[in-house]
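User: ok so my PI wants both of these folded by tonight, can you help

Assistant: No problem, let's get them done. Here's the first:
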Amino acid sequence: MLPEGSDESSSSIAGSLMLAHPQLKDPNFMRSVILMTAHEEEGSLGVVMNKASGMVLGDIDAAFADFGLEQVPLYIGGPVSSDQVLLAAWKSDHNFAEFQLFFGLDPASAKAKLEEDPLLNIRAFRGYAGWGEGQLESELSGNALLFPKWTVLRFWNLRGILCGVMLS
């Protein structure tokens, strides 16, 4: 099942959010919100957005201080390649009418983006979620993963409300 508004001719779900079904017991994905970063015939990639590790980048490698990134929060992005760190940055205007996401940044690019815009939000993900050819489609048809009827922006607003912080 593709997200609402998708059609069979453009079935890519890259950029969409998925939710783990409430009854999914896999500890890697239980109660997860997943941002899909790639979806192709050969397979799909995404990162779990809501699994904080309680660590910052400086906890895993002091070299991140060279880029001013040592205090960036580290999230558990998924079970694949958990020795790798992916950086994402985003920004929006005050009314959230415009939203920009920069995914897969290297530390130097993240530093440059922060220098351009100090209000940029940055988050790091350790590992990612990956599905082989047809695997994600199988999980979607079995309703293990679901598509919400809201956007990435609405997710950040809802998360902020749940944490007691209004983002708008």
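One down. Here's the second:
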Amino acid sequence: MADGSAVLCFPDSGAWFQGYFTSNTGTVGLLGVEMDVDDCVRCPHGGYREYSLKLIQYETEMEVEVFVYKTGGNLCAIQSDQEDIRFETLNMLTDDKAEKFIRKVFPSVASAATSSQVRNEYDDFSDGL
């Protein structure tokens, strides 16, 4: 297991997230798409969700998919029983601070979020997976 820092960007719906993980061995891209779970398990307030998480090694163009679960709502933890993967929230940005950070770190997400049509396409995309 590598120690490092991750930056994750969630839309309000929580249907997907994008981010990256950086350690002393390099940077890995992250793309999580929410998976359907039974209504008795799923928390409507975002406290428990399951995701298919794609890890993308940019240098080798390798991709690995693992299944993770998220607990804790906004100050979340993401982990997996299958792999040695665990993310814990140490800092959360909202409103103007989040918008500035997203524009800097995730320009493609920021430009998509300015258009309600594209935002709806993101939601439709994640619903179809």
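The first strand starts at residue 4 and ends at 9. The two ends are 28 Å apart (CA to CA). Good luck tonight!
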